[in-house]
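Example for tutorial group B:
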C-alpha cells in the first residue's frame, strides 16, 4: 500500500494540473501541401486506410504517359472519421472517384483531400454521418450555485481553416468555418466568444499545499469557472472543503 505522503503528493499534483491546464488546440498545420493550389483528381478508388494520425484515400489516375498513376490523399485521423460515422464499407475499390484537394509540394503521388464525390454523392472532409436526439433543456447551475454538469456533453467540432490572409490555418468551430475563411470574423473574435479561464495564481497552489500539510489531502473539486475547492481529512473520512480563489 502506498504511504499517505506519496498519495497526497500525487493528488496535489493532479489538483495543480487541473487548475493550471487550459484548453489546447495544437495542430501541425498543412505541412508540405500547397494550399494555394486547388486541384481536381479523377480516377479509380483502390483502397481506404482509416489510421491515425491521418487516414488516406488511395486511387489511380491516368498519368502523363497514359499509364495508371497511384495517388493517396490525406484525410483526418481515423478516430475522428469513425466518430463521425464513416466506415471502410463506404469506399468500395473500383468505384469512380473525383477528389477536390491540394497537391504536395514535393511528392506528386500525395495530396490533401478537401472533398470527394463517390457514387454520385459529394462529401466534405469534415462531414458527419451520425445524428443524435436533442437533449433536454438544462439549467446552467444547480440550486447550490455549482455548475450543472449532468447529462450529455459535446464540444463543437473544430476544423482547420485558412483565413484570407493565408498561412497554415487555424482550428475554428465548424459553424464559423465559412465566415472565418471569408474574413467575416477574426480568430480573436472567435476566442472572445469562449474565453479561456484565468490561470491560477501560484499563491493559490501554495495555499493548497499548506492545507494538505496540516490535514490529509483527499482531493480537489472544481466549484466554478475560476474556483477550486480542496477536500481534506484523515483516515476516518472527509473533514472539510476549503474554497480557493
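The residue assignment follows.
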Amino acid at each position: 500500500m502506498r504511504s499517505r505522503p506519496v498519495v497526497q503528493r500525487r493528488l496535489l499534483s493532479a489538483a495543480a494540473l487541473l487548475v493550471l491546464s487550459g484548453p489546447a488546440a495544437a495542430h501541425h498545420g498543412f505541412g508540405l501541401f500547397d494550399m494555394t493550389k486547388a486541384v481536381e483528381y479523377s480516377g479509380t478508388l483502390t483502397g481506404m486506410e482509416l489510421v491515425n494520425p491521418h487516414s488516406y484515400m488511395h486511387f489511380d489516375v491516368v498519368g502523363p504517359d497514359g499509364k495508371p498513376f497511384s495517388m493517396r490523399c490525406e484525410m483526418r485521423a481515423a478516430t475522428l472519421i469513425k466518430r463521425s460515422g464513416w466506415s471502410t464499407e463506404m469506399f468500395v475499390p473500383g468505384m469512380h472517384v473525383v477528389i477536390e484537394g491540394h497537391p504536395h509540394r514535393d511528392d506528386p503521388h500525395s495530396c490533401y483531400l478537401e472533398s470527394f464525390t463517390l457514387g454520385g454523392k459529394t462529401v466534405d472532409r469534415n462531414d458527419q454521418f451520425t445524428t443524435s436526439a436533442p437533449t433536454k433543456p438544462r439549467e446552467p447551475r444547480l440550486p447550490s450555485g455549482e455548475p450543472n454538469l449532468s447529462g450529455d456533453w459535446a464540444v463543437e467540432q473544430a476544423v482547420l481553416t485558412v483565413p484570407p490572409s493565408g498561412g497554415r490555418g487555424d482550428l475554428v468551430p465548424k459553424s464559423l468555418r465559412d465566415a472565418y475563411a471569408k474574413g467575416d470574423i477574426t480568430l480573436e473574435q472567435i476566442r472572445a466568444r469562449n474565453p479561456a479561464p484565468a490561470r491560477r495564481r501560484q499563491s493559490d497552489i501554495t495555499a493548497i499545499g499548506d492545507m494538505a500539510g496540516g490535514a490529509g489531502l483527499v482531493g480537489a473539486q472544481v466549484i466554478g469557472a475560476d474556483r477550486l475547492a480542496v477536500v481534506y481529512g484523515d483516515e476516518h473520512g472527509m473533514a472539510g472543503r476549503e474554497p480557493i480563489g
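The helical segments are 4-20, 78-83, 177-182, 187-193, 202-214. Compare this with the pattern of hydrophobic and polar residues in the output above.
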